[in-house]
Design a protein that fits this description.
9-stranded antiparallel β-sheet, alpha+beta, binds adenosine-2'-5'-diphosphate
């Protein structure tokens, strides 16, 4: 196997610097801790438990993700479609190992995942694969009509048996509903921001103050 074929990573992305990972994790834990005590959440508890009477501890419900990052391109060591083309792009090579400031402007929770929405700058969008949203079409039919970068997120945690790739699909699903004109049922103003419910256990917290997260564009080999 030629070297260039073995040197393609598992994925490319922005990796949050350690101090910021800590901050984001704390914010996420604060949110989960508060969310599962809200009457509005308890009202929709069956979305998570399947049973009306059961309680849920969201901090336990999700296994926290380590190595917080925002994936740009999942390459699977070159096996994923478009992986080689992505790795060969000048912009990818030029920006490799460069520092960047990610803006996390919302947190979302579903019965499957918890994540942070990332709002990409024009410059960061140059590293975003053009088909990232379209790729989710089989799961989120209108995904391709959402603006480029809509799928950008940091996976904070997954429920038992759920793969992190699900987080991006969950985010796209919420954004697709918003695009259809649904604002979600405004549930409450929390200290962190306003909380909206989109049905089927989908919660979106729009942060009052976006978290600015220092990150490094790089890749992960596993
Ligand atoms: P995410 O970006 O939501 O965290 P895994 O450990 O499952 O191999 O995944 C490694 C990373 O690549 C994770 O960050 C994961 O999701 C992301 N990822 C996995 N599969 C895909 C895919 N098909 N498309 C986009 N990203 C993926």
């Amino acid at each position: 196997v030629p070297l260039e074929e073995t040197s393609i990573p598992l994925f490319y992305g922005w990796f949050l610097v350690p101090a910021v990972q800590e901050k984001v994790r704390c914010t996420s834990m604060d949110f989960l801790k508060t969310l599962d005590t809200l009457e509005a959440f308890k009202k929709h508890l069956t979305d998570f438990t399947g049973e009306a009477e059961k309680e849920v501890d969201l901090e336990q419900y999700f296994s926290a993700n380590s190595g917080l990052h925002c994936t740009t391109k999942y390459c699977d060591y070159g096996k994923a479609e478009g992986a080689k083309e992505y790795a060969e792009q000048t912009v990818v090579k030029e920006q490799y190992c460069s520092a960047s400031e990610l803006s996390l402007n919302a947190l979302f929770v579903t019965p499957r995942t918890v994540g942070a929405r990332v709002s990409l700058t024009e410059n960061q969008l140059t590293l975003w694969p053009s088909d990232a949203e379209k790729e989710a079409e089989s799961l989120v039919p209108t995904a391709a009509s959402l603006p480029a970068g809509s799928r950008a997120h940091v996976t904070l945690g997954c429920a038992d048996g759920v793969e992190p790739v699900q987080t991006g699909y969950d985010l796209l699903e919420i954004l697709a509903l918003q695009q259809e004109g649904l604002t979600g049922e405004l549930v409450e103003e929390m200290e962190l921001g306003s909380l909206a419910y989109f049905g089927k256990g989908r919660w979106l917290l729009s942060l009052r103050e976006p978290i600015s997260a220092k990150a490094c564009f790089s890749s992960y080999y596993g």
